[in-house]
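Tip: read the tokens left to right.
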């Protein structure tokens, strides 16, 4: 009789301990499930630019040095493009970004020329800058020939002082690529411009990520989140434009 009571008591104790363990484990399982859901959305964590593979030698994205007639500056004329690859884009008429270290108040002209793979001029224009020194943009006009898919173009940006007294030039490349069905689906599902920027960046679409982020920063120049994204993008591996991060968008 004594052993029967002892056995019943042991069973009751075991059941009690099982219930306690289950109740303690349940919140932990719920918390783990929540963290896993968050992990499925890396776009909310950090911008991550992934440069294309198999690129060309370093692109001439910075002016080569001092020239007669050009004002001395701490930083050279610089195209905002990756170090070793054409800047990829999905846009038919992309926007190009250049850091201009020279004051727009001096007598000058700016020239943009787009060349195709046969070294034929696709588009060219000459104009005046305002608000420099700073980062300027040039949007290929909608009435210009559109970039063809899987074609690499060279684009020249030249800053000329006075009446040809001296000039500074950069000559990087751009290449339009086609979107996969999966990437189209990702972009369409993006709920904010920032998510779309992250998708562009992780897929190596430099001009699209840079342009959308720069335009957001122009609209909200004091937004700390956008500033952090800007710093990450320009300092990314294969980009290394850390010295341009603090320059103003004009």
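Filled-in amino acids:
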């Amino acid at each position: 009789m004594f052993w029967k009571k002892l056995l019943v008591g042991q069973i009751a104790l075991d059941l009690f301990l099982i219930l306690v363990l289950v109740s303690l484990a349940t919140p932990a399982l719920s918390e783990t499930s929540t963290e896993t859901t968050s992990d499925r959305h890396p776009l909310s964590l950090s911008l991550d630019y992934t440069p294309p593979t198999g690129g060309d030698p370093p692109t001439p994205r910075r002016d080569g040095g001092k020239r007669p007639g050009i004002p001395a500056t701490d930083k050279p004329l610089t195209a905002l493009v990756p170090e070793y690859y054409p800047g990829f884009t999905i846009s038919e008429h992309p926007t190009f970004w250049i850091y201009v270290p020279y004051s727009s108040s001096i007598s000058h002209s700016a020239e943009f020329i787009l060349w195709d793979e046969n070294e034929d001029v696709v588009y060219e224009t000459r104009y005046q800058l305002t608000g420099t020194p700073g980062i300027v943009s040039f949007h290929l006009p909608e009435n210009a020939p559109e970039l063809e898919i899987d074609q690499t173009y060279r684009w020249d940006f030249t800053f000329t002082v006075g009446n040809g007294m001296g000039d500074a030039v950069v000559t990087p490349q751009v290449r339009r690529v086609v979107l996969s069905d999966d990437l189209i689906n990702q972009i369409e599902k993006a709920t904010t411009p920032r998510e779309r920027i992250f998708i562009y960046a992780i897929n190596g679409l430099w001009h699209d990520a840079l342009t959308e982020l720069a335009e957001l920063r122009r609209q909200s120049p004091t937004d700390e989140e956008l500033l952090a994204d800007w710093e990450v993008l320009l300092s990314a591996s294969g980009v290394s434009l850390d010295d341009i991060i603090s320059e103003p968008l004009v």
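The chain has a mean pLDDT of 83. The domain at 78-244 is CATH 2.60.40.1220 (Immunoglobulin-like).
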